[in-house]
What we know:
Radius of gyration: 13 Å
Largest sheet: 6 strands, mixed
Number of strands: 6
Strand content: 25-35%
Oligomer: single chain
Number of helices: 4
Amino acid sequence: MKKPVLKPGPWSTGDATERIRWIGRQSGLNLTYKLHARVRLSERGLIVSDVLYVLKNGFVHLEPTPATHSGYNRYLIQSTTPNSNGREVGIVVIPDYVGKLIKIVTIMWMDEPETRSGNIIGADDG
Length: 126
């Protein structure tokens, strides 16, 4: 996959989908997880390969929100995975396109209203 052209952020949903997928497919990918995301991953019976699958194949449908660090934004990328039994997994990420880094903020089932209420994308990413 050819490296997409870097445009100043925040990215449109289409650009975010393309760039997050590109980062997710890099051999030098660096993933970091908030403790909250690790707990949610375990609670949902998902594994790291589910996260990688969503990053490589998911779609961003919502506009981003600013992260606490200037110049970075949070995106919700979502997809079903081979282990999700047809349920759609949503992952809030903060991508660093230049550094091939993705910070995982939280992981949710998209069909559970309690995980989507409030401002989940606005969850603390510190």
